[in-house]
Design goal:
Blueprint: E1 5-9, E2 20-25, E3 31-36, E4 43-48, E5 54-58, E6 72-74, E7 89-91, H1 98-108
Parallel strand pairs: 6-7
Antiparallel strand pairs: 1-5, 2-3, 3-4, 4-5
Length: 113
């Protein structure tokens, strides 16, 4: 299953219910806290320890993801070719920046509220 992340400000998200946190290191050595469903162990969101103000929420876990429009795609170096979205800009994993992508996405996101 592929689940594309939505970059969001941590302060804008409220989590209710039981979750499990798993801390892992990336290839570059950054530490990432992954929030998982404790029952099925599906990753719901991830947050870099160094940038706690932003997180990536898995769009596939949303009840309605129809409003999600991708602005970039990352880690495509190891992706299955049919999973790469044509016409969506690629950002290399080493250049991934939560804060910058969060600001960019907010500039194009639909109004909420």
């Amino acid at each position: 299953m592929f689940s594309f992340p939505v970059i969001a400000r941590t302060a804008d998200l409220t989590v209710t219910g039981e979750v499990e946190i798993e801390r892992l290191a990336t290839r570059s050595g950054r530490e990432i806290d992954h929030t998982l469903c404790p029952h099925c162990r599906c990753r719901v969101m991830s947050r870099a320890v160094a940038t706690p103000d932003y997180l990536s929420l898995r769009a596939g876990t949303l009840d309605d993801a129809s409003w999600v429009v991708p602005i970039v795609q990352t880690w495509v170096e190891s992706a299955i070719p049919w999973a790469v979205i044509p016409g969506v800009r690629v950002v290399a994993w080493k250049d991934f920046d939560y804060a910058a992508l969060g600001r960019e996405w907010r500039a194009t996101a639909p109004p909420f509220g």
